[in-house]
Amino acid sequence: MKGKAISLFIRLLVCSGLVALGCGGSGPAKSTGTAVGGHPTAKTKGDISDLLTGYSQTVLFYSFTGYGPRLLTHGDTLLDPTLGLWYKIQLGSSLLTEKLYQDQARTIPAGTLQYLTNDAAQTLGGNIAVTLGKYAGLVGVYLQSLQSVGQTGTLGFSVPNVGTTDFQFNFESNNMGGYFGKMTNGVELLDGYLQTELVTNAVDGSITTSTTDSNGYVSSFTWSSTFIGTGTISGKDPGLPATIDWTAEGTGLITFADKSTASVTDWVVGK
Known about the structure:
17-stranded antiparallel beta sheet
C-alpha cells in the first residue's frame, strides 16, 4: 500500500492546485456553481456529501491506533462507537491483538487488529481486518515507531464501495498515554473524488482539520475528543459558504448561505 499512498498524495497535490496539471478520475479541480451564496443545488449537496465521506474515514484512524490511549484499556471489553463494534485488547510478549465483536458477550467475531511489537526497535505494525458492521470488508496496514518524545507512523486502509485512505502522523505523547501533534490524510473515493486533509490533535483531545478537494472546496472543522463538532465549507457553488454541526455518528445539520438547511445522516446530506 506504500506505493499507492505515494501515488495518491501526488494526485492530491495536483487536485489542490499546487501543481498545474489535470486530475485523473474526477477531472481538474473546479466548481461548476454559478455564484457564491444563493440556494444550494443538488450538485452542491452531493459535493458536500463527498467531503463528509472523507471526514468519516478520518475518524476511523482513532479506532486503529496501537501505542496510545486505547492501549490503556487492555483486558476490558469496550464499545467503539465509530465502528459500532465491541473490542478487547490482549498484550503478548511480541504481539498486540485486538479482537472485534458484534456483541458485548464476545460471541460474534467481527474482525481483528494484529500488530507485531519490537521492544528493542520500539516499533509496532501489522494488519487490520473488519468483517462485520458498518465497515465490513475494511482491510489495512498500520505501522508505528516510538520516538523519544512521541511517535510517527502510517496507516492505510480501503473500505468496499467507498475508497481508500492513507495517513501520515507525527505525535508527541503525554504521561497519560495521550498524544498531540500533526497528521496528513489523503482520501480517494471510488468515483474519483480526492481530498487532502491536515489534522492537528491538541493536548486536551480536541481536533482541528482543514481540507482542500477535487471539487474546489475548502473546509475547516473543529472536533471535540468525542468527535462532536462544527465546521465551515467554502466554494464557488450555490449555497456556499455553509456551516455544519454534527455528532460522532455523522448526524447533523447544514446551514447554507441563504439560511436554508439540510440534515446530515450517516455523513450524507439529505435531499
